[in-house]
Design a protein that fits this description.
InterPro entries: DUF5819. With about 190 residues, the chain is of the alpha+beta class. It has two domains: about 1-35, no CATH class; about 45-185, no CATH class. The protein has seven helices and six strands; from the N terminus they run ααβββααααβββα. The protein has helices at about 1-10, 15-30, 70-80, 85-100, 115-130, 135-140, 180-185; strands at about 45-60, 65, 70, 140-155, 170, 175. The longest helix is centred in the middle third of the chain and has 17 residues, at about 115-130.
Length: about 190
């Protein structure tokens, strides 16, 4: 069934996709989206790091806010030296963030119908990543998460006369509430 749904999502419009397009899209997006670009027409000129922090309910009943966890750096560390890194290790967070940015304005409000879906997807990724952290479990239970990106320009080659800023630019999202199921490691 999965193979058929993915096939239908990339196939030209036909009777089945016209009648069941929403069901097909719900099955495929965002986890199984296909991207058929073989060559990057616009190579990345920025490094984007996705970071998260959490507000925890401590065992004593108080609230505690963690520092920022650099999820992109952790992905990079997992890939370094790995001769065959998984698609998830390489792309899940980056593609999730790209999906969020494409469906939200600069004010972090959704644009279009897929905005809510992209928020859920990014929240699910960051909460699952936080659940892997032993320190989180020792400190308490995740109540809310806040995500930000840190964007820095890729510096031009030494022989270039071009001057660009090397200062990071942050995009900070509002706090998102985490359900009890998500905080316990469940995915809805």
């Amino acid at each position: 069934m999965h193979l058929a749904m993915v096939f239908l999502s990339v196939a030209p419009a036909n009777t089945v996709t016209k009648q069941h397009g929403q069901a097909i899209e719900d099955w495929v997006f965002p986890e199984f989206e296909q991207n058929w670009k073989l060559f990057a027409p616009n190579p990345l000129q920025q490094n984007i790091a996705v970071q998260v922090r959490a507000e925890l309910r401590t065992k004593e009943g108080g609230l505690f806010t963690t520092g920022w966890y650099d999820l992109s750096a952790r992905d990079g560390a997992d890939i370094d030296g790995n001769l065959a890194p998984s698609h998830t290790q390489q792309n899940e967070l980056r593609r999730g963030w790209d999906f969020f940015v494409a469906t939200h304005g600069a004010d972090n409000r959704p644009i279009g119908m897929r905005g809510s879906l992209s928020e859920q997807y990014v929240r699910r990724i960051v909460v699952m990543r936080l659940n892997r952290e032993d320190t989180i479990h020792r400190e308490g239970v995740v109540r809310r998460v806040q995500v930000r990106s840190s964007t820095t320009n890729v510096q031009p080659p030494a022989w270039s006369q071009e001057k660009i800023s090397d200062k990071p630019v942050y995009r900070v999202l509002p706090w998102w509430t985490v359900s009890a199921d998500e905080a316990a490691g469940g995915v809805r």
